Structure prediction request, 1076 residues.
Amino acid sequence: MRYLPHSPQDIQHMLETIGVADVETLFRSIPRDQRTEHPDDSPGLPECQLRRYVEGLAARNKHFCVTLASAGAPFHAVPKAVDTIVSRSEFQTAYTPYQPEVSQGTLQAVFEFQTIVSELMGLDVANASMYDGASAVGEALLLALRAHKGKRSVVWVSEGLHPHARTVIDTMLHAFGDVTVRWLPLDEHTGATVLPAPVPADVAAIAVGYPNFLGVIEDVAAVAAAARAAGALSVVSVTDPSHLGILASPGALGADIAVGEGMGLAGTAGMGGPGLGLMAVRDEYVKQMPGRIVGQTVDNRGNTGYVLTLATREQHIRREKATSNICSNQALVALAFNVHLSLLGPSGLRDMATLSRNRAMELRRGLLEIPGVRPLVTGPVMNEFALVFPRDAAGLRARMADNGILFGVPLARFCPERPAWREAILLAATETACRDDIAHTILLAKDFYREGK
Amino acid sequence: MTTQIHSGLLHREPPIFELSSPGRTGHALPPSEALDAEDLPQAFLRRQAPLLPELSEVEVVRHFVRLSQWNHCIEAGMYPLGSCTMKYNPKINDAMSALAGFTAVHPLQEDEHLQGSLELLFQLEGLLCRVSGFHSVTLQPSAGANGEFTGLALIKKAIDVRGEGARRRKVLIPDTAHGTNPASVVLNGFEPVPIVTGPEGVLLPDAVRPHLNDELAAIMVTNPNTLGIFESHLKEIAGLVHGAGGYVYMDGANFNAIMGKVRPADLGVDTMHFNLHKTFSTPHGGGGPGAGPVGCTAELAPYLPVPRVLRTNEGRYRLITEQPNTIGRVHPFFGNFAILVRAFTYMLENGGAGLSRVTEMAVLNANYVRSLLKDTLAVSVDVDTLHEVVFTDRDLKKETHVSTMDVAKRLLDFGFHPPTVYFPLIVPGAFMVEPTETESRVELENFVETVKAIVQEARTDPDKVTSAPHRTGVGRLDETTAARKRILRWTPAQP
Amino acid sequence: MSEYPNNLRYSRTHEWFDPETNRMGISSFAVGHLGDVVEVDLSVDEGDVVDAGDEVGTIESVKTASPIYAPISGKIVAFNEDLADAPELVNDAPYTDGWILEIEPTGADDTSDLLDATLYSDHCASEE
Prediction:
């Protein structure tokens, strides 16, 4: 086996040094009756066969040339340089930087990542990542409960969060116990979260998507103000941080905690992950933050250096009183995010957001020219929107698929019992689509409904 | 800006923001366009651009390549962190996980358009079931700690379904446990109850007996435990816990010590998480992403997170999103898919026989290091150990005042990453070595000789050891200042 | 030899209390075990009434966090605001500038359960 370096002579020598007759004896501390009766002795596959089999599996997925769907997994054009950096052995095969003297590369990169996230979100401090955007909302809500020292036990969460995120949050908070989740519905016409007034004094946090699952840009400033007036924390979940090239930062709109899903910009959105949970908070909540945080310091020779810090929040020290059970999680994805944002710079980020928005608006306008097509909701959108088709949305999507176009995601998949969503499709465009792709898509849709008359 | 050379070609890099210069860019986007601002309220627009660096691709690549050179990694040398399992990460795994057929597909494509990915998930679940003896596996959890949360959530659900949720809230945790265990217990609304390991380093049934009542929800055991010792009474303890109506959670962080030798389900374990980034060779990435799949018995299977992958009679694969008793979801979409592909290819390349051999060589290497070092550093508990061995600085410190931390830092000067230190907590000055199966005899012997030389140096020139490291790019870093000053992001210098 | 000031009273959990000033803090023994203090995090507010033995906050060093317990029953009347910016005061001057809380005792002779410097010194020796 190519990953096991010992020769038979090595093994013999080692056994003799240890003082046992054979390898089997090394397992004598396991009672005989607890050993596997029939060990699996199936042979392995040589690399050429392994490759053929796994490549065969990959080929059985349908590849779309044009992706007009995001729904929580936005596809962006990530330069090859990003992959080149994160594939370096020194980053990919290092452990969590517990020995800072030989981990400055990872530590400084994380420090830069924290700066970038803090800048994007417009908040003071960011952590070194969470698993994904969904669990980051759950962690933010738990943070808000801690910040109120257990004196408030209700959280208000918008139904406009991604359906998967809603389930993740529900799972986390239900398990935690002693907390009531009130789901805030979306307005049927605008698609924005309906915020009841006034906010009662037992509410610890209010969480909304930015934009929400239907693509509608929530009035974050109003939510943040309502939360603040009631002494609650506002949690803003950024759907795609590339939007922050043109949309106001959560911090500027008054949010206390901003979270988000960064995998689109890290280039790992294919198959939905690895995800990248972003989290930034106002300074006063830093001690309540879950996860790793890197800080700048000096070494005993006077050099600037970086270390993991504020560890007393964490499970390995605080155990059952820790802010979370989270350890290390998505460092390499955070690095990819960091490298990509460094390549983009402020102008690139703005261009990416603008191109995404412009292609989406072209697609939306073109499709709305088809008789009977109408927007599901009327609120302002960024680059994602839901349209209701006059009939046979499934047939339309199949026609698009035949032409190599992933034409959105049917909303009925998430909520089959809601009649308004039956023929609705959630569409999105990013800079990965060009004007011709959009024009071709519109043409195909027009043809589809013209034929069907 | 002048470049500072540390030594040879190692470059001291400033934070990337200090390299920035207005007007440069490294992106490859289509030409800029004016924003189509129709229906977009002015109040929603960003007024101040984020402070991102402005650099060309060349400069960005150089910055990160230079940063990378400040890292130790498994591909540069031994990384004997106990409990962390830093083994070599086969390259074919990376290539398979990077196939465009996997990376360029949207997770919400129709099941019919994701047959390859779904088959891979289904097959990987099967492989993990086979090696563990469990009935079912979920691949969703993102990491070991997330797996712990998930496994305990299954137990909690089962107890709720039995109508005993209000009463059964206690989870027994031995003192050898990882810190994540008590934290995961609390996140599930349970109450952790610490119990004490016996003098021989294993948990004894008597430690559990006083807790066998209708408040007992579960016991959470790492096996082999963090001393590297097989919990030989676990099967009996599982019987006792089941008899009292509780469940058995096994922390699978050390599964690499028994893979192919013991199936946890045969010991009476109800649920366990796997660390794919430990046992199944996926890279650690400087702190993730990993993956923490959870296996469970038939009794707990109905509570597993959705979606579940189903194989139809026609050999097609389908996602099931509706399960009446599921705990819900612990991750959007499918978990850390790229990591799952790597573990899958690793298991296929090894086969069942190969995985058993991997275990044998891991245990051989740990015992070889133990036998070569046992006269130099005291072994914490003198009983048989498997994949790792925990030494203590008890005697060394008494004799020389040199501590585990000093030895660890001095190892860096000789090109070795130190072992895990000061864990498990029950061992004073713990020095926990897990060489893994991928280290050669020569490398192990070099490591041992280096530790011996440092211990000798502790007697002859202790100051040299306590002031280490001397040869690393940076010296010992001041963690107190970091915690007190809290500089957690870069800020531009004030003019 | 006792390194613990004779005018103070001590709890078995290593807090000191000064019956003259009603101030409390952490003993040099505890500080020595904690290492460099980076934060004193109080969970009580001025005006709160606590019982002896109640947890009133946490003291943190780089690698550990320990609960702080009220050495006596009483009302919290003041806390050391300097610690927010200078937690090192607890290391540098644990019995003077590094005081943590001022507690107005409820009972007249509420220090009877606490140890004097000699007994406390023995107590520490037994924990070493």
